[in-house]
Amino acid sequence: xxxxxxxxxxxxxxxxxxxxxxxxxxxxxxxxxxxxxxxxxxxxxxxxxxxxxxxxxxxxxxxxxxxxxxxxxxxxxxxxxxxxxxxxxxxxxxxxxxxxxxxxxxxxxxxxxxxxxxxxxxxxxxxxxxxxxxxxxxxxxxxxxxxxxxxxxxxxxxxxxxxxxxxxxxx
Amino acid sequence: xxxxxxxxxxxxxxxxxxxxxxxxxxxxxxxxxxxxxxxxxxxxxxxxxxxxxxxxxxxxxxxxxxxxxxxxxxxxxxxxxxxxxxxxxxxxxxxxxxxxxx
Lengths: 171, 102
Known about the structure:
heterodimer, A: 171 residues, mainly alpha, 2 domains, 0% strand, globular, B: mainly alpha, Helix Hairpins
């Protein structure tokens, strides 16, 4: 259990450090690469929570697809590749006050509500063969079939919408 | 302090969420705002999975997958909108997007 805690705090520090770098760096491409670091740390936390299917999906979708899309976005909008001082509003300190107040309120509420509730000794969600992928797919295709279909339609709508929006020859 | 606590995951999620909120509020570049939104969505996923582990319920993982799918759709449409703004105004500075100002 101590090993899990060391693992947790090491990757939590990585996530928080890289996330702060994402929102403070003056270089857009570097921010995208710090974002990859955040995603890797989050994958480690998913593993710790015994959700390996979600972890693998996160690697495929976030690090594989979304980051490529982000880098294309940076490239197509011809952001300055080097330092860019105009990345942050002049009134960034208002955002800082909001974020610090929010973390204070949320931290107080969480500590007040959940105190030191422990997670189960052995996190394993009805696994069949040492992995929870089978359980996840069973749940998606039985109990959560309608949300799954709705997400499919949403993805189709987003696909069509993105193509229509980005077309050059639209009226 | 030797068992994993629910709260350590929830607090990590809260901190990540607030860093994302700061990014959305403070950044001027539209692509950077989209990146900050990804931080917020990841914080939500950590919370979903922590509660799923806590209650030994697979729903946490299922909805985390739905959030990932919706994040992919959001980035696709968001970047398309950013590209249109860039094409029309030759800038992705959110301070320049003031056509709706009275």
